[in-house]
Design brief:
Strand content: 15-25%
Largest sheet: 5 strands, antiparallel
Number of strands: 7
Length: 153
């Protein structure tokens, strides 16, 4: 009888689950409505900010920010605590654009070195293309019509 009472008491005790905290490791991270780069941006988080991990889906992390829940790409977060240290340079954090370019093996330093080695080439059209914007509805239509599938789509 005593064992039964103790067992029931243990079962009725509140269970404490510690949430996993992630730190934002980019200058500015985008929290999206869906686990996709095409998802609507519902919040933005900054370098060093903490978010609570809710669940994982492939390379995406569902998180609770101080303001709203949403999805952020794993490249923007770290399980290690990221802190701003007084007197340190904030520019040491990478922006979302820099992470995307680095994933392709490209960054501003590589671009500048390439331009220096190929001074006879004009990069005007590349610079113009970088200024183009396409709305998400057009991108989604292009993906659907082209039958594209893949991570992050």
């Amino acid at each position: 009888m005593r064992r039964l009472i103790i067992s029931v008491m243990v079962l009725l005790m509140p269970v404490t689950v510690s949430a996993t905290s992630l730190s934002i490791q980019v200058e500015e991270g985008q929290v999206r409505s869906t686990p996709s780069f095409l998802g609507e941006i519902v919040d933005k988080v900054v370098y060093g900010e903490s978010v609570e991990l809710v669940k994982e889906q492939g390379p995406w992390r569902m998180v609770n920010t101080k303001r709203k829940p949403g999805w952020i790409h794993q490249s923007a977060v770290s399980e290690s605590k990221v802190e701003l240290v007084p007197g340190s340079n904030v520019d040491e954090g990478a922006s979302g654009k820099e992470i995307a370019l680095a994933g392709k093996g490209f960054n501003a330093d590589v671009e500048n070195a390439y331009k220096a080695e190929h001074q006879q080439m004009s990069f005007a059209w590349v610079d113009n293309m970088e200024k183009l914007t396409v709305n998400n509805a057009d991108i989604e239509q292009f993906i659907k019509q082209g039958g594209l599938r893949g991570a992050g789509l």
